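quick one, two chains, predict together pls
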Amino acid sequence: MRENNVLLAFTGEFDMKIINALITSVKLKLVEVEEAARIQKKVYNVMVDCLETIFHSYETAQRKNASYNSFSIFTLSRDAGFYYLISGNYIFNDTMEARKKQIDKINALNTDGKKALFRDYIVDDTIADQDSDLAMLNIAIKSGNVLGYEFKKVDANNSFYIFQVKIKIL
Amino acid sequence: MILQPLVLAATESTPHILFDPARNIFEIKGESRPENAKAFYDPVIDWVKNFCSGVKDDKLHPAKLIFVINFDYFSSSSAKYLMNIFARLEELHKNKIQVEAKWYYNEVDIAMKESGEEFKKLLTLPFSFELLRH
């Protein structure tokens, strides 16, 4: 990926005001750089889900422990074949395994399996642990690609969680 | 007691909602990604619960209820609440009250149509799709 293909890069603390500003900015940027309205819409949908996932994980972690480090990153970039959405935020080490399992479970499903799980989630509140389960699944369905992730251990309690999804430009 | 219409103006992150039994308008439109989906949708669900109870008691009986869903985007957490509304309307349908869902989608947003299809699979009430030209 070349640096000049970065359409948006944000680092800092996410709140709804920031998220709304980023969404507006990307909406305008996509109209400028992407001719296909269908791809614009797809990137937009996945991006909103990604930002919401960061926001929800921030909220959940903060409820659990007020000392949570809320620094996050988000980038949207593209090359000739794909759009790339990458987010990064701190998570507590004791939640890392559950997150890995959640993503691995989604990645192991085919499209119909993902959609069936989505239906299960929306009819039964007790299946999904939190809103992020549903958002993650939605990202996988809408992007049509596997979800990439990496955890970089920071200290005994925290890791930096990097999440990546790509969207094919047809 | 006459149930007052539910009117919520659209914001940057929440949809326009108009549920007006007197005029037989039931529509939800725009972006649905509220900061707190529960806080936003709980009052909506409460309104729908009251409405459905009234309809079952034959106090409020629309000729045919057409529920119009026309989202530009809805978040995953909104989906759970939307399903809750559908489930309550489906109860009316099972009680021989005419209910139909109309799911609008833009021609460039196939994912929106596919999302509607997932809801349709979960429901037995009449559910149709309306294409909006870009």
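Helices of chain B lie at 37-56, 76-94, 110-122.
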